[in-house]
Amino acid sequence: MKRLVVICLGVLFAFPAIARGDAIIDWNLHAQNTILTTVPPPTAHASTLSFAMVHGAVYDAVNAIDRSHRPYLRVAPVRRPASQDAAAATAAFRVLVALYPAQATVLQANYDASLAKLPADERRARGIAAGEAAAAAMLAARANDGRMAHGAPYPYPLGTEPGAWRVSPPLTAVDPAWWVGDVRPFVIPSARWFGTPGPNPLTSRAYARDLNEVKEIGALASTTRTADQTMAAVFWQAQPLQLYGGVLRDLSARYQLSPAQNARLFGRVTLAAADAAISCWNDKYRHLFWRPIDAIRNAGTDGNPKTEADPNWLPLFDPSTQAGLATPNFPDHPSGHSCVSSSIINTLQDFFHTDRIAFDVSSPRFPGQTRHFERFSQVLDEIIEARVWGGIHFRTADVQGAQLGERVARWHRWFAFRPDH
Prior knowledge:
elongated, about 50% helix, 13 helices, Vanadium-containing Chloroperoxidase, domain 2, 3-stranded antiparallel beta sheet
């Protein structure tokens, strides 16, 4: 059972408090602030790639000293003793500066502050060397990986036929990061490896059931959606790795994770999220399926006797609900939030060897408030519902997206970050 919690100063989720002296935690916050404040702002799916590059390099840098697990990339071990904090800070700094050179001044100040906390000795020097090597390996590995400029020319058709995706009002521009689905994955063999079965046929009962559900409960003026469901729908409309970043930092402090454990936790979560986003966006532009607003307004053309058009229908996700809310400008199926969230939730369940961990989630949509969960799986259950409550996804897109994310996380579990024995 979720509950709304008002938080006070000093509680862990006040943004962004650092609970313990750990460079991995520090540089997760620096990465978040750097990535999410860049201009133009990144899409949620594109930002997963940057987080993965940062934390993949941090993992390799720390693991070159810890040596308890297999490296992600080929980074040679360094002589010990060596500073894991220096390694983590250096790896993150070098990757972030390479990706966001316009923020180099702020990043340099953060890096100098990180090093100033450490004795200027051989341990620090060896840690710096490990971080430099890990960052160089990551940048080399991701060169020419398919990442493109924000707003690269859009190559797909805008649909006019029933079921075909088109940009939904009030937006007019296409997804500026449509290319994410063509990026080379981090761990999984191919972006198409975990593709979904796809949307329900327009004339099927399952399609009519999905459409009529979102038409009723996802409408701007819905009389069946509760106040808590409305809040939940809006709450989750934010960058997934911003939403979950606070959860990871809280769990790290609560369970007193070591730097090596933190590096592995953040590395596993961010690389799984990136591969889930890549797979999801590849699948979206394979199916090119319309969003509920267009499906409902044009239901008279779908050939299904169990659907009925409402040419004036509006979803909860409308600027009149909260500034910036709208039907996203990319295809419906599968749900990106479900794909990425499922990969993260399944990774957390595996990392902590349980589903039964209580935690709070904060959202930039509701500063000073959190939603509480008793299990990891409750988050995914709520996100699947929330995308329907928001009026922006069919249920099938959410369910199949969650299944895609689970398959990605399972692959990562068996083929990445394995113990070195």
